[in-house]
Design brief:
Blueprint: H1 2-66, H2 68-81, E1 100-102, H3 118-129, H4 136-142, E2 146-147, E3 159-160, H5 173-186, E4 193-195, H6 201-209, E5 214-219, E6 229-233, E7 239-243, E8 246-255, E9 260-265, E10 269-274, H7 275-284, E11 289-292
Parallel strand pairs: 2-3
Antiparallel strand pairs: 1-8, 4-11, 5-8, 5-11, 6-7, 8-9, 9-10
Helix pairs in contact: 3-4
Length: 293
């Protein structure tokens, strides 16, 4: 009886040990499987993140490639101008442009005080549209950087000559933008000027449709498409082709059905031009434009 009982006890011990061993093996297998599963999940999440990131980069690159000049110009000048307080204002895209738009910009004549001051007078027109009471000559005397020197950066950084001088040259968008922001800052204005140079015609129209007149560079003489360029020697090895008959106006309206744009012109008053002519001269005068928003 004792031997039989002893054998029975040994059998119980063996079975118990076997059961415990089997349980340990199962637990180890479960933990190992779960660890691998978690590791795979981590890898899958990381891969997904990479895919999303690459997709975002590719999308951004495509958008930038489609409009690289416009985006680069606006971002650069925005950082110079400071934070745009109304950056979230909607801007129409080309596919949703209203057929026509006309803003109530009052024309100001540059003569007789500023025979070559079309740029500063155009800026004055836009400032008056925004309800700022500033005289064109006050802008020249207190805010415009104008000089007689010719060196790298002229035309872009400052007005070459004097707007009071009938034989002066003029300036392009960056110099006028700097003047506008200097004045707006002095008034603690919520507005800022932005360089829209090299923007498409539809982009300019979108700002007008959004209630924002655009200062643009064009020709003084729309009857002559043969633009003459006067070579200005800046350094011994650097020169600039200044376009003769350079003129600056305010784009205050457009009509796609009539194929016309409306200018507040400092010399000719409120006038209409064909969109085709405007496109041509906008290109010939280096696609210069600024907006205050």
């Amino acid at each position: 009886m004792k031997k039989k009982k002893a054998k029975k006890n040994k059998l119980k011990i063996v079975l118990t040990l076997s059961s415990m061993t089997l349980i340990c093996i199962c637990v180890i297998y479960f933990l190992d499987t779960n660890k691998k599963k978690n590791l795979n999940s981590t890898i899958e999440i990381t891969d997904t993140f990479d895919i999303v990131s690459n997709s975002t980069v590719e999308s951004t690159q495509n958008e930038t490639a489609n409009d690289i000049t416009e985006n680069t110009t606006i971002q650069t000048t925005s950082s110079e101008a400071g934070t745009d307080p109304i950056q979230d204002k909607p801007v129409y895209n080309a596919s949703s442009l209203p057929t026509s738009k006309l803003l109530d910009v009052t024309q100001i004549n540059q003569l007789p005080e500023l025979p070559t001051g079309c740029e500063i007078t155009s800026l004055t027109q836009v400032l008056h549209f925004l309800d700022y009471d500033i005289d064109k000559t006050d802008l020249v005397d207190n805010y415009l950087d104008y000089r007689d020197e010719i060196f790298p950066g002229c035309f872009m950084e400052y007005f070459v000559g004097s707007p009071y001088d009938p034989d002066a040259c003029g300036c392009f968008a960056p110099a006028l933008m700097k003047t506008a922001n200097k004045y707006l800052k002095s008034q603690k204005s919520p507005y800022a000027a932005y360089d829209l140079s090299y923007s498409s015609i539809n982009t300019l129209f979108s700002h007008v449709a959004n209630g924002e007149p655009v200062i643009v560079w064009t020709s003084l003489d729309y009857t002559n498409r043969d633009i003459e360029y006067q070579t200005v020697q800046i350094t011994a090895t650097e020169s600039f082709d200044w376009p003769v008959n350079e003129h600056c106006v305010v784009l205050m309206g457009y009509d796609l059905d009539k194929n016309t744009v409306t200018f507040a012109d400092p010399l000719y008053g409120i006038i209409n031009r064909s969109i085709d002519d405007f496109k041509y001269f906008y290109e010939m005068y280096y696609y210069q434009a600024i907006v205050i928003r």
